[in-house]
Amino acid sequence: MIERTYKSMNEQIRPSPGLISHTLYLMEEEGKTGNRTRSFYRGPLAITAIAVICFLLAGPVFAVNVPSVYDLMYLVSPDIAQYFAPIRESCEDNGIRMEVVSTYIHDNTAEIYVAMQDLTGDRIDGTTDLFDSYSINRAFDSAATCERVGYDEETKTVTFLIQITEWGSRDIEGSKMTFSVREFLSHKTKLEDVPVDIALAELSGTSKTQEVQITGGGGKNVKDWGDSMTALVPQIPICTPLKGIDVTAAGYVDGKLHLQLATRDKLTYDSHGYFYLLDSRGNKIGYVYSVSFAENIESDERIDYQEFVFDIPQDEIGNYSLFGSFYTSGLNTKGNWRVTFPLVPDDQQS
Amino acid sequence: MSVESQCTAAVESVVNKYADMVYRLAFAQVRSKSDADDIFQEVFLRYVRSKPVFENEEHRKAWLIRVTVNCSNNHWSSAWNRRTVPLEDCYTFELPEESGLDEALRKLAPKYRSVIHLFYYEGYSVAEISAVLGIRESTVRTQLTRARTKLLEMLKEDY
Fold it and tell me: N or C end of chain A: which has fewer CB within 10 A?
C-alpha cells in the first residue's frame, strides 16, 4: 500500500519548466568560464594535497628528476609525503613526455597527478587543455574527472589531477588503470567583457533569414523547437573579435534581437564566444537562448555558427550596449600518449 | 570547456532525461520545493564542473543519485534547514492517502528518506542502494525496515 501511494505521489512531483531552463542557462554560464581548475577540498587532506602540489611545482626538478622531488619532500615534511605513492611511469611521443607522477588512494577515491612536458619546444603553456581528448580506462566501476591544477614555466610542465571514485564495494587498491591522451590545446587567447562595435539602434527590423538544422543550443524553450529554426543569413563579417571568430549577422527576427557568431576551426581550436547586453544602469542582460548550426560540416571549410537571441524590443535597444567574451587556441598538438600504472598505496611500493 | 561543448544537445539531454529523477530524489529528502530547486541546480552544476566520465548510462545515473543525496545531506547539515519547512513549499497531492503519506514522510528522519525513495520509487534492490549510496547492505535493510515500521505507525495514527 505504501509503495503504490508513494509512486502515485511522486508522479505529481516534477521540476518546473522554469527551473529546468534556468538550470540549463546556469550550466551554460558555468561552461563559459572555460575554467576547469577547481579549488581543492576536503579539509586537512585537501591542505595536504595543496601543499604537495605547490611543492611539486616550485622547482625546476619537477618532472625532470622525480626521485629528487620525493627526497626533498621527505626532508621537508615526511607527514605530507607519506600520502603519495611515487609512480614514475612515463611515455613520450611527438616530443612531449607524459608522466604519472604520484597517486594517493584514500577511502574509495584515487587521486593521480599526471605531468606533461614539452621536451623540444614551447607547445605546452599555462593554458594547456586536454578538453575531450583524454580517456581513463580502469577495471572497476567508477566516475572520473581530469583537471589542470598547475603549470611550471621553467620546465614547461603542466600538471593534471585525475580523481576517480569507485562506485561499488570493490577495493580499488591493486587495480590498474590506463590514462591516455590523443591531443591537447595550448596558447589560448581570450578577450573577456569587451565592447562589440555594432550599432544596435540601427539594426534592420526585416533581416534576411533562413531555416537551419540545429546542432545544439541552450536556454529557454530550446528543446521545444525540434531540429530546425529560423536564423539570420550569414553576411560579410561585421567585426572579428579574435582570429577565426567573426560576427556575421545582427538583426531583429519576430521581435527579438539575433546576433550571429561564426567560428572556423572550432573543432580544432575550440574557438567560441558569447554576447551580453548592458543597460544604462550597467546591469548585465543575458540572452534568452542560443542555437548552433553549421555549414560544410564534412569539409575543411566547415563553419560553425551560434546565434544568440535577446528578448529586448527594437524600440528600446538603443538604451543597451553590446559586450562579449571570446576564446580560441593557438595550437592543437596531436600524439599518442598512454601510461598504464597500478593503484597501490605508498607503503606497498617496491 | 567551451560554451558550445557545454550546451550541446548531449548535455541538455542529460538534464532532460534525469530532471525528474534528480528533482524527485531531492524533494523526497528535503520535502520542500525551494530546497529541492536549489539541490536540483547544484547537482547539474556539479555535473558541468566535474565533467565526469562514465562507462555506461547506469554509472551516470548512479553518479547523479549519489550527488543528489550528498547535496541533500549538506542541506540537512544546516540546523536552520532541519527546523523550517515553509508551508508554501509543500505539494498539494490529489488523494488524501498521498497527503497522509507526505505528512508521515516529513516526520520521518531524513536519513531514511533516500533509502525509501530509491527502494519504492526507483525500484532499486537493497544491494543496488548499498552500492550507489556507499553504505553496507545490512544498513540499508535496517533503515528500510525501521522506516517502513515508523511510516505504518504514523499512518495508522492518522486513520
Answer: C
CA distances from A66 to A78, A120, A293, B75 (A): 16, 19, 47, 43
pTM score: 0.54
Question: How many CA atoms does the CB half-sphere of B42 hold within 13 Å?
Answer: 18
CATH of the domain at A292: 2.60.40
ipTM over 0.90: no
Do A258 and A250 form a contact (C-beta atoms < 8 A)?
Answer: yes
Residue A146, C-alpha cell as written in the block: 581530469
Residues of B with Cβ-Cβ distance to A36 under 8 angstroms: 1, 51
Q: Per residue in A155-206, pLDDT tens?
A: 888 888 887 777 666 667 777 788 889 899 999 999 999 999 899 998 877 7
Per the structure, the complete domain to which residue A211 belongs is given by 191-330
A274/A225 same-domain check? yes
Distance of CA A349 to the CA centre of its chain: 34
Let me know how many helices (H) and strands (E) chain B has, helices first.
9, 0
Find the angle CA(A55)-CA(A161)-CA(A334) to the nearest 5 degrees.
Answer: 115
A167 in contact with chain B, both atoms CB, cutoff 8 A: yes
CA distance, residue B9 to nearest chain A CA (Å): 5
